[in-house]
Design goal:
This protein is mainly α and 274 residues long. It is 73% helix and 0% strand. The protein starts with a helix and ends with a helix.
Length: 274
């Protein structure tokens, strides 16, 4: 009996090791997909994130919205909004891009689930690197700032990424049936997050009649909660992380069931008709 148990454990361990090895290699491929040079690809991602931060910093200042920011560090106010916004949208793009007709799936060990995991981890890795570099540069060169509850802010960051992965799985599972339409819907959702994510204003300052148009968005909850954690003099009254977490779990369950259905019904010729 012990020999059989040891043999079963060995097979499970070897299977797990092979899975994580494949995830590692596919994750590296996703990171380097835009550029053959890994270092250059990472630098380009960091530069892109920095340009977005600068753009919103200038735009909020130009529109005169600094008055609605939290009393404290304005650059921290911008960073807590932009980083979570970018992490959420990047996770959607990374996950939704690998459908059942992805060329990588022609390799026998690679599965759709593995592509989802590797895409999600690749986007998370790049965004963490961008956050560390830009936060360090902003703290040293622009203005020093202190984060009130760093652990809570980090939790909000991961919830923003997790909710992006969940929504990306929904788009991934639906894309084989209507690729062009789902791509347009995905772009509309990302553009809508420019406003409905709440990165340029505070939930506490919105009237109740307007607030209902934002509370459906899990990113709105995570950004507002991150500001409640980052600033000692701001408390998020109208949002909760529980909503974003539970909604993400539901979307992942629904998305994986839809993905399983689409994977069993999709045809290679569908992608060639588009």
């Amino acid at each position: 009996m012990s020999v059989v148990q040891n043999s079963s454990f060995s097979r499970v361990a070897m299977g797990g090791f092979e899975f994580f090895t494949l995830v590692y290699h596919t994750t590296v491929r996703e990171v380097r997909k835009s550029n053959g040079n890994a270092v250059q690809a990472l630098l380009m991602e960091v530069l892109q994130a920095a340009m977005v931060v600068i753009f919103f910093y200038v735009m909020i200042t130009f529109l005169g919205l600094r008055g609605v920011a939290v009393r404290g560090s304005f650059i921290l106010y911008v960073l807590t909004g932009v980083f979570l916004y970018m992490t959420h949208n990047k996770a959607i793009s990374a996950v939704s891009g690998g459908g059942p007709v992805n060329p990588m799936l022609q390799h026998a060990p690679v599965t759709t689930f593995m592509m989802i995991v590797s895409g999600a981890l690749a986007s998370l890795y790049v965004q963490i690197l961008a956050v560390l570099v830009i936060t360090f540069v902003a703290n040293v060169l622009i203005e020093p700032f202190t984060v009130y509850n760093l652990r809570r802010v980090a939790l909000c960051f991961f919830v923003a990424w997790f909710s992006g992965v969940a929504i990306g799985i929904i788009f991934l599972s639906l894309r084989p049936f209507a690729p062009s339409t789902i791509k347009i819907i995905e772009q509309i959702y990302k553009r809508a997050n420019m406003i409905f994510s709440g990165k340029m204003f505070l939930a506490n300052k919105l009237p109740s009649s307007t607030l209902v148009f934002f509370t459906w968005n899990p990113l709105f909850h995570t950004i507002d909660q991150s500001r409640g954690a980052a600033f000692v003099n701001y408390t998020a009254h109208h949002t909760t992380l529980d909503y974003a977490i539970y909604l993400s779990l539901v979307l992942i369950c629904v998305g994986m069931m839809l993905e399983h259905f689409s994977r069993n019904t999709v045809s290679e010729s569908w992608s060639r008709r588009q």
